Amino acid sequence: MAKNSTTKYVFVTGGVVSSLGKGIAASSLGLLLQKRGLKVQNIKFDPYLNVDPGTMNPFQHGEVFVLDDGSETDLDLGHYERFLDQSLGKGNNVTTGQIYHTIITRERRGDYLGATVQVIPHVTEEIKTRLRNLARFDDRPDVIIAEIGGTVGDIESLPFLEAIRQIGLEEGPRNVIYIHVTLVPYIRTAGEYKTKPTQHSVKELREIGIQPNILLCRSAQPLSDALRQKIGLFCSVPTTSVIAAQDVTTIYEVPLNLHEQALDDIVAKHFDWELPVPDLADWESMVQKIKSPQCRIKIGICGKYVHLKDAYKSIIEAFVHAGVASEAEVSLIWVSSEDIKQGGAEKFLQDIDGLLIPGGFGERGVEGKIEAIQYVRESKIPFLGICLGMQCAVIEFARNVCGMQDAHSYEFYRDLKHPVIHLMADQEGVTELGGTMRLGAYPCVLTEGTKSFEAYGVKEISERHRHRYEVNNAYRDMLVERGLVLAGLSPDGRLVEMTEIADHPWFVGVQFHPELKSRPTKPHPLFREFVRAAVRRHERSDGKSVGEVDQSEDVSTTTR
Ligand code: GLN
């Protein structure tokens, strides 16, 4: 590759329907180019008016992915970080809300000197600036892969499409490539794949002035050459650039599939890059392990949004990664905390090999979670509590071990006798909800001799946070006296970041979100060890060897 050449741009748009996996496509291409020696930055443009997804209901938007720098971002950033094993920052997720916020602040200051402020040029210029800012990093990327949220044809995404059209003109056709992800549905009654939605979607894109260079066609099965030819002809795309992105067993197979169809070669050729072949051996071995597990365990997840798996995206992925380390398939059994409250913990949890309680907000379902925790603590079932999950574990311990019957969190009740979870001092007086929690990466010092220390193998770690409440220090001594282990503290010793229980096979609570830092080829130490503990329990409980795959009925999401 020519040195000092300019940064190239890859734009990924989507057509026909949403949820086609544009984020996975953008991440997969990023991975392939990175494995061929390039510096890659991924960016996601989100066309909604929220400044960030931090204030959005997970039911609508899925998980909020928190970065090291504390920005609350779209869950696609999670895919980018996981596929590229790269930590991103604020500039990698731009929303319409941010763009308008900047422009309106400038307008109120009088910066526009009397001009009429308009979508074109002011909004489009700001979008282009945000994009080009990424190219100005000290460590300048060779390529920026920008994904435009939403579906072509949406009113909301028009300014972004106009901006990327202009970038194409300004940078020149050899410096920009447009990839359009579409759907080629199979119509069962006709026994045929249909190309018309793709044709219409490309037509819509061309009306805006963008001719895609590559089509990624999502389909249930591989597409025939004849079909690819037909799509290419109608959409003015060379047949070789009509790529079939068929359904796969695991999302981590997507890059391998795209590489087989030479997606990265097509991009390299377009940009006139001569690149070494990618070394995908690690990645292939990881995929192989996901596809051929040696055993199968069941982990219960007890939370509020169990019907919407996107709300727990990173947790699901972290289990896939941890499963690879144990060569286990982790079946996730989603249990509503409200069901537990009504039906009792044993009924729902007696079969599981481990329980995870994820983060959350609000009181609904909390009593069910506490009941579930009591059950696994007493039954010695491995447990991992994340954020609210850890707070519930502390409440449960205070109530049932320390005898403080009405122990609770100040988040839910204000006049408590035993507020064992309290508001953090620097959260007092905070009234605005957006971006005001304790957010992002903070250091934590581990206590030697704990399961957590054993898992990480180092004394100081850094993990990402998103919370307002914490263990109330007024209760520390009492809790510790009765056997709660403070496994990790903030370096100044003031915040309890991790708790454990000594006489239990594996019972860990963390105030931070380990799932956000798990990567497919580098499972997070806590998830890895939690799954190991669950595998050990599984082997013990039914005498099965790890070599045997349990073929019992698939109860819920399997992690692949
Ligand atoms: N609601 C709790 C807090 O704000 C926990 C937050 C979380 O689980 N992310 O402290």
Overview of the structural elements:
Helices cover 37% and strands 22% of the residues. The protein is α/β, with parallel strands linked by helices and 560 residues long. It folds into two domains: 8-285, Rossmann fold; 294-542, Class I glutamine amidotransferase (GATase) domain (Rossmann fold, 3-Layer(aba) Sandwich), CATH 3.40.50. Strands 19-18-21-22-23-15-14-12-13-24 form a ten-stranded mixed beta sheet, with helices on both faces. A seven-stranded parallel beta sheet has the order 5-2-6-1-7-10-11, sandwiched between helices. The chain starts with 7 loop residues before the first strand and ends with a strand. Mean pLDDT is 92; it is low at 544-556.
Estimate the mean pLDDT confidence.
92
> Which overall shape is indicated by the principal axes computed on the Cα atoms?
globular
CATH fold naming of the largest domain? Rossmann fold
User: What's the number of structural domains?
Assistant: 2
Distinct helical segment count: 19
**Distinct compounds present:** glutamine
Question: Would you identify the regions where 5 or more consecutive residues have pLDDT less than 50?
Answer: 544-556
